[in-house]
Design goal:
Distance between the termini: 49 Å
Helix content: over 70%
Oligomer: single chain
Number of helices: 2
Largest sheet: none
Number of strands: 0
Shape: flat
Length: 75
């Protein structure tokens, strides 16, 4: 019974790694077919949206922790 989690974990890591490889390969192949300028524009837009979402979540967490009375001093 002790070997079951180990086998499942190894299977999960292998399956997810294989799926990620083929997903990246497929997207890369699709990008080769398309227009380079559109691909760069879309990538830049997605990066900007990610950074804005990251900042929004950080500010929300800071606001929520302040409202809840958590000590946020660095010293």
């Amino acid at each position: 019974m002790d070997w079951v989690p180990i086998v499942f974990l190894i299977f999960k890591v292998l399956a997810l790694s294989l799926a990620m490889f083929f997903a990246v390969k497929w997207h890369y192949d699709q990008g080769q077919k398309g227009e380079t300028r559109a691909l760069l524009r879309t990538g830049g837009t997605m990066a900007a949206v990610f950074v804005l979402a990251l900042v929004a979540v950080g500010l929300f967490a800071f606001f929520l922790s302040s409202v809840l009375g958590l000590d946020l001093n660095l010293s």
